[in-house]
Structures are given as structure tokens and as C-alpha cells.
């Protein structure tokens, strides 16, 4: 019988990048029927970053990757695998991960994308952890990057929810039993049309009609997003805690996807977690989709909020439906 190599996995470095252009709620008040006060109260957003016309998802992803490699003290040729979680790839082919590989010079890395929208980074994390734990790779670069401004109808009220950004983390093996404790993934395809981009794929290829009807921008059932998020996120967090024989009191920090401030407050209330343990940045950046979790992780890391041995919980819900939760013991 062959022995299976199992190693502990930790995060060796983090990085993030936000485009320079800022679009405020006050600006959107002039475009859609909404107000700054409503957006801040119900969504939790005051402003968001928007990629420049010449910036692609791979551009901002590559910059976050460079910063993560600097944080980890690694060179591009040290990277064994690149996984990019995105719902807004540069092109349908090739993968954005392959484009990033070329841009950062990671000549030794395999590369592929993962599509789970706002849960994508946690899905990518699960895959990357397994490659490190098995001994297949030593350094895996995870990137969450989205330019939702490119698939947003700026005449629709739902435009207030999203912004552009990228975040990255590098996984490597740990010398002890610290690092990742558990990652749980879930999906329910019955909710597939509650958040969708109808056209541009094989079901509805691009045509003059799809462009005229605005079918290349996202369509969202806000009520379904809220009801699903406030159901599956608390449940996933409780389950991953139980699997590790922990309770909510063991959580030092929760790093969640940023769907809305109402969803996060309801989630914290349902699991009994004080809201001051919930990391948020949606007021400044809105929902950056697949980039939300790694951007907050990088901010917390660089601001000294992640203490050695701290228990960090991650949670996200995205289109599909997809959702996930994870626990990590932080290693400095």
C-alpha cells in the first residue's frame, strides 16, 4: 500500500490591489433611483473602486499576486500552481490564471480558473490546500479577482452592490499542526438563476439582440440572495465548528464575503458572534465578489489584526448557489 503524504498547510503571504478610481453613492444617486442613506443602511456601502478602461481582471490579479509574493518572500519561479477565482475572466479562453502566469513570470506554475463567483476564493483555497497537504506542490498562489463593473448595468439600482478588486494568498506547508483545520464546500444548483449573467455562453451566444437587451450584465434576485445568505452562512459556520469540536466562542475573527451589511449582521446574530469580530470593508470597496475574502485577509494581516494562534473563520455564499466555510489557526 502506498503511503499518503499529509502535511499541515498555512498561509505564507497575502496581497491585494484596488483600482484608483472611486465611485461614490452620491454619484450613483444621479443615475439610478436610490439614495446614499439607503445604500449605507441596507447594503453598507459608501463608495467602490472601478477598474480603469484599460485594466483587465488579469492586470489587477497580477498586481495582488506580486504583493503576496513579496509578503511571502518568494520569487515568481517558486510558485508551483496558480488558481484564479473569478466570474469576470479576461476572455472565455484562455484561463485568466494562464494570463496571470505570464504577467508575473511564474514560469514553473500550472494554472487554472475556478468559477464559483463570490465563493470562488474559498473553493480555490480548498483545492490549493489539498495540493500542499498531499505533497504535490510546495507553493500555491490563490487569487480572487473580479471586475464586476464590466458586467454591471449602471442604469439598474443593483449597480450599488459591486466594485472591482483583487486579493491573493500563498499557501505552503506548516511545520506543526497549525494552519488550516477544515474547509467545507456546498452547492445547490436549484438557485442557479437567482444571480446570473444570461448571455455570452453556449446557452445564449452573443448577438445584436443579447446586447440590445442588456443580457451581458448580471441579473440579481435580491430577496433570494438575502434569504439564502442568512440561511446557509450561519449553518456552514456552525457545521465547520462542530467538525473541529469548537464553538463560536473559539472564533477570534470572521472573514466573510461581503454581500451586504444586513446579511453579515444577521449571520453574526444567528451564530451568536459579537459583530466586532466580523471583518468588513464593504463601506470602502462594496462587494468585490471573488476578491472580497482575500482583500480583507490581506488588510487584516498588514494591519496586525491576525495574532499568532488566532482562530480565523471564513465564510462565503455565491451564485450557483455555492457556499463555503473554513477554519484556520493563524501562524505568524
Categorize the overall geometry: globular
And the CATH topology of the largest domain? Peroxisomal Thiolase, Chain A, domain 1
Question: How many domains, as an integer?
Answer: 2
* Beta-strand proportion: 15-25%
The SS-based structural class is alpha/beta
Q: CATH first level of the largest domain: which class?
A: Alpha Beta
CATH H-level homologous superfamily name of the largest domain: Thiolase/Chalcone synthase
End-to-end Cα distance: 36 Å
Q: Tell me the number of strands.
A: 13
Q: Regions with pLDDT < 50 over 5+ consecutive residues?
A: none
What letter string, H or E per element, gives the SSE order?
EEHHEHEHEHEEEEHEHEHHHEE
In spatial order, strands of the major sheet run 1-7-6-4-5
Based on the coordinates given, report the CATH architecture of the largest domain: 3-Layer(aba) Sandwich
Any overview of this molecule?
- The protein has 332 residues and is an alpha/beta fold.
- It has helices at residues 25-29, 36-43, 57-72, 96-104, 120-133, 208-212, 222-243, 261-271, 282-285, 292-302; strands at 8-17, 21-24, 47-50, 81-85, 110-114, 140-147, 164-174, 179-187, 195-196, 219-220, 253-256, 311-318, 322-329.
- The protein starts with 7 loop residues before the first strand and ends with a strand.
- The strands form four sheets. A five-stranded mixed beta sheet has the order 1-7-6-4-5, with helices on both faces. A four-stranded mixed beta sheet has the order 8-13-12-11, sandwiched between helices. Strands 2-3 form a two-stranded antiparallel sheet.
- It has two domains: 8-177, Peroxisomal Thiolase, Chain A, domain 1 (3-Layer(aba) Sandwich), CATH 3.40.47; 181-329, Thiolase/Chalcone synthase (Peroxisomal Thiolase, Chain A, domain 1, 3-Layer(aba) Sandwich).
